[in-house]
Design a protein that fits this description.
Length: 356
Amino acid sequence: MKTDLPLAADDGWDMSPRRESDIMLDMPTTFEPITPDRPLPTSRGVLSAAEIEALLRPNLDDMPEPEPEPEQVEDVQVCDLALPPAQPTDVTDEARRMASRLSLALRDGCGLKAAALARASARGSFDQGLQTDCAGTGSAIACFTAPGGEIAAMLVISAPLANALIETACGGHPSQQKARMLTPMDAALLEGLVRPLGAALASSLKFSRIETDPEFASALAGPGQTTILDLDVRVNDAKMPARLIMAEDDLFDGASEPAPVRSRQMALSAPAGVPAAAGAGAMTAVLTARIASLSVPLSRLADLKPGSTLLLGLPSDQPVELLTGGRDGAVVAEGQIGRKGNRMALRISRRTALLR
């Protein structure tokens, strides 16, 4: 078949047979083997044996020392910062009386027909007591102070109970609604409603403030053991949780009042012909509370004036020793000093063999 394409010779690119034979004759047919003695060709000439040795095995004496490896960091055992839960205790008669007082105070002082029932009781600190589901969104914490000015009681009002109190104050009917953040107006209404609750719980308690942040309320409270009481506040047909936290050192002013009644009972039960004073005196023991001996320079004593502070040089948890008789008596018990109401008190922490 005849083709219309031009031949290679027609384009001028065809190589003549003579030229092709000359090129084939110029190309080598064998290659010389590379020997170690033969220098390598480079752009500037050939490399000597010393240069080749320097390239293959360079001298690293002038190189900087490598950086040392970082030290191995060992894991440090970090203690658990989470507070343990409060130790549960039995619901005592005093806890039930607290619940009944709170029920009367909610009805008389807040106008809310509610019945508070003691569901559980525990013993712990204020921090442990504020770790509860009641202190969530929309909840409020009513703080009450003792005569000394310290926070001695807290009432954690859950969001449903706070909403019921606010609706009752506004003339409505308590209802179950979704928890919401309390506004400044809501906090002001709650402040006026829960103010009478302190005096109903204890005559020495006074209302201090309303807080909505559990962490801030925990920072206001002091150290020490507290009684934690979980309550079920029944309003109509709904149960609303609440929690009452009261310090054990500042509960009631009247806690020391039953002693005269006990002495009268002892006097009445004394045998005939024995005076009442003799019967009461036979059960009396003289104890001396000793903290520690104190050595103070005379210059410090000379500069003492009202308002001066004299450090005892002892840790704050130094136990107080109870001695039989005077200062030279035997140690019968150890305790921690504090107050109960408006009087100083000692909480016994350890007894010796003399009282066993």
